[in-house]
Specification:
repeat; Squalene_cyclase; mainly alpha; 43% helix; two-stranded antiparallel ribbon; Squalene cyclase C-terminal domain-containing protein; Glycosyltransferase; globular; SQ_cyclase_C; intramolecular transferase activity
């Protein structure tokens, strides 16, 4: 909602919007705990969780969405929150270049063969939808006034990380031009997230071949 309000050109000094951004900011998880730390013990906290107070499971997708909201709001008092969130996401990138929701390199997919593996959901591999969201956040950040307030080393890490993410997305695009999204309505969700990321990150619209396949209702 905060992103939509920013896109609707509501002034930044609007009291309701300011309260919403502060509400998000106050829910940034800065305590050094969570299952994600099993593979990232030296990574500083800085993520956001889907739930109100779930300090054990911040997720990359919601953290990227928070960055997008902060960037579009354009206020000096969100800079530190952005830096912490970006640094956390950078540390959560998988070796294949993509991002998962909650963990790093949790891709031992053979474990899904266990009979009680909860419908192939035992692992947390990279997904196109989350990766596309991160690219959108990074792309908007690099093109925003905030770039001047970021140190050159962080900018370099963002650019390098984005390049790896683009290679991951190109390697996972299906022959029809679409991407599978794990955390939404599958192909439409995955492809739309990648397209948003590609536009923001100047990657190029590799998934446009999907668009003519919509049905007569437009969906």
């Amino acid at each position: 909602m905060s992103i939509a309000l920013c896109d609707s050109s509501i002034p930044g000094d609007n009291d309701g919007l300011k309260k919403a951004i502060k509400w998000i900011q106050h829910r940034q998880l800065l305590v050094p705990r969570g299952d994600w730390r099993v593979y990232n013990r030296k990574l500083a906290s800085g993520g956001f969780s889907f739930e109100y107070f779930n300090s054990w499971y911040p997720d990359v997708d919601d953290t990227a969405a928070a960055i997008i909201a902060f960037v579009k709001y354009e206020s000096e008092w969100t800079v530190q929150s952005i830096v912490l969130a970006v640094s956390w996401i950078l540390g959560m990138q998988n070796r294949d270049g993509g991002w998962a929701a909650f963990d790093t390199n949790n891709d031992a997919l053979f474990l899904n063969k266990i009979p009680f593996s909860d419908m192939d959901s035992l692992c947390d591999p990279s997904s196109a939808d989350v990766t596309g969201r991160v690219l959108e956040a990074f792309g908007l950040l690099i093109q925003s006034p905030y770039k001047k307030q970021l140190c050159s080393s962080l900018i370099g890490r963002i650019l390098l990380s984005s390049g790896r993410a683009i290679h991951y997305l190109l390697s996972t695009q299906e022959l029809t031009g679409r991407w599978y999204g794990r955390w939404g309505c599958n192909y439409l969700y995955g492809t739309s997230n990648v397209l948003c990321g590609s536009i923001a990150d100047s990657m190029g619209s590799y998934g446009l071949t999907l668009l003519p396949t919509s049905n007569s209702t437009g969906y």
